[in-house]
Amino acid sequence: MKILVIEDDKKTASFIVKGFKEAGFAVDHVSDGDDGFHMVTVNNYDAIIVDIMLPGIDGLSLIEKIRKKQISTPAIILSAKRSVEEKVRGLQKGGDDYLTKPFSFSELLARVHALIRRASFTEDTSVLKVGDLSVDLPSRRVERNGKTFDLHQREFILLEYLMRNRDKVVSKTMILEHVWDYSFDPGSNVVDVLLCRLRNKIDKDFPERLIHTVRGAGYVLKTPPTA
Known about the structure:
With 227 residues, the chain is an alpha/beta fold. It contains eight helices and eleven strands. It is elongated.
C-alpha cells in the first residue's frame, strides 16, 4: 500500500513516515499544500494524511480541491484544533477522518487501515488469497499450500500490490510508483530483481506459477483456473 503524507513539521513528518515504512507501506512526503495537490493529482495513493496548517494551500482547501477533481482517495486530517466545529468543517470539506495532535502512531495506522478497507468495498481485506497463496496483512504471514515464507519488506509490499491487482497487468512504472517513492530512478532494474526474488520464494517449488511476465507490458499475478 502507498500513502502520501502532507506535513510541514519536520519532527511530526519524520515520525509518521518512519512508522508507516516500518509497517510495510510505501510513503511519499511533501511539506506544503501546493506540492501535495500536485502529488495527489499525478499519483495513485491508497490514502493521504493531511495537516491543516500548511504553507501554500491549507489542508482543508487542498482536500476540497482534490474532491472537486473527483479524486476519492481516503484522507485523514491532522490538526491541533480539538473543537467539534473544526472536526465537522474538516469532514464537510471532504475529509474521511480527523485526528487531533498529539496522537499515537498505532491509532493513526489503525485508522488508515480502516479507511483503505472501506474504500475497497469489501468487508475484510486483512487476509488476501489467490489460489493456494494467502497473505495475512496484520501478522505479515505469507503461506502457500502449508509452506510459509519470510519476505523482506519490499517483497511483501510488492506481493500485496500484485494480489490486490490480481489478474490485472501492472507495469514496471506502476510497481516503482507503488513500492518505492516518487524520487526513485525509473531507469533502474530494481523491479526485475525484486520480481525474481519474489518468484524464487513463492513460485519456484510449485507446479502452478502465479506470477507471469507480459512482454512489453509488465507483470500479472493470475488466479489459477479451478478444476
